[in-house]
Amino acid sequence: MSAVTKAAKPRKERRGLTRKTREAIAFYACVSPWIFGFVVFTAIPMVASLYLSFTDWDSFQSPNFVGFANYVKAFTKDPLFWKVLGHTFYYACVSVPLSLLIALYLSNLLSNNFRGKRAFRTIIYLPSLVPLVSAGLIFKWLLKPEDGPINAFLSIFGIKGPAWLLDTHWVIPAIILLSLWQVGGGTILLISAINGVPKELYEAAEIDGAGHYRMFWNITFPMITPILFFNLVTGIIGAFQVFDQVYILTEGGPDNASQMMVPYIYTTAFKNFQMGYASALAWILFVIIMIISALVLRSSSAWVFYESEVKK
Amino acid sequence: MNNNYKTPGAKARRYAILTVVSAILCAPLVFVVSIALSSDATTNAMSFSFFPTEWHWENFIRVFDSGLPIGRFIINSLCIVLPACLFMTLSSALVSYGFARLRAPGKDILFIIVLSTMMIPGQVLMIPQFILFRTLGWVNTLLPLVIPNLFANAYNVFLMRQFITRIPTELDEAAELDGLGYFGIFTRIILPMMTPVLAAVCVFTFSANWGNFFGPLLYINDEEKMPLALGLQVLSAQSSGAQTPPWNMIMVGSLILIIPVLIVYYFSQKYIYESGLGVGSAGIK
Asked: Where are the transmembrane segments (chain B) (predicted)?
């Protein structure tokens, strides 16, 4: 470090600035693109959104301050709000754990070395790369009630498939089905996590005579909990913000049976022009996501295992 | 894990399970290819088969003079994606260099802000952002989809900062002795060493914007200004009338939306893995 300071000295004299000041100037010059983007596209919109949530703005006339009326309306006067919130919970609480379990199972099958490993991994990963618009269009086809391939397949076994996207009870399972099709992304992450587990642990366990299931539950599973946890948190946050699938498959129908928070906010703001109420809904969603993330983070110490804790 | 699945029975069972799962996951894509290769007659009769029985590869050329503005959609998508890839990657790299290497008062607070903005869902911002762009007169132009993507975003900054902290600082110090300033160190030393993470961020930016549906849905009304992702959905939704949309052409469009993502991922796998993303989160190792 001393050599560096010496070398910097001539320049310091030249510009009349201390090294510290120059470094600070350089830092702010470097981070200025982020600061600009943050202020213009995040900070100011956040404040504006919070303000709007306390107004009755309809995007045409000037907004009037209405206090907590929008929030009160959501929780007490808007029956659709509870329905939509329930659907969102239903979707998130089924699709996220289910795809995590499937990803865990598949990654366990795929993490070893065996013939055709690469081919299987690629095929399983492929659907998760498909843009949601394409995926949505594909599933709209697959799920057609009369002649759709899924129901045609079920009829081979004598099962009469439901009307899926047209059936109020089956529409959310249909959207969950689409999310399960893209299980490969999580699987790939878990495979690399499993491959990162030190081999010595398995060798030691084998000497002790542990079988496959013991090894999985006592070595693999605890060692990859940080990644599982990461997938769980990001998955839940993502599931609460689901939009594309719902909009493309059903636009919230039939009879709002698949309406979820973000498409509902979109409809409220840009179809019904209740900008104030929609802003309040967006903030409610934000707070819900924060609470869930905090709960998951809190609970994590009970079951997430960090390698560094052992080294202490 | 070499000790699992040793017995022939376990091996066979694993192959059986993986084959069934792969077949189920592949099936929708097979069906898309089958529709995309169907003739117009099959399309009008809606008598698609699951496996391709006709091979009308010329559909991939016909789609550009079929009267559907798919060529236009692709150009619009490229106008959004290419500037985003270039500027998002470079600006995020510059910002992350600042956070990783330079000391300044207020830096820690700014970095906490970076981390916390990663948690803000876009929906909270969508209404005021829409108002902002409407005030600027940018609605129904590509600008709201291009401009915000030119400025470093929190997730990429975090990712790249983690990467830079693994580059030895001795390199910076040596370069400084040779008379390089902070910007020189960034362009000559750090940036060349960041190739894997630059590629990874570029790929993520590409696929996020190429497939983006929500943004264009908010801002674009005219069909000739739509990017491919929105355009396809609009074309397919026009089916509600008496006439069915040309599904073979729409599925060709869908494949055009899918294929670049697959190609980009295939060639960037190595970089994504090297940038440390293969392990999932920075916390594990």
From this structure: 15-37, 73-97, 109-132, 138-159, 180-206, 247-267
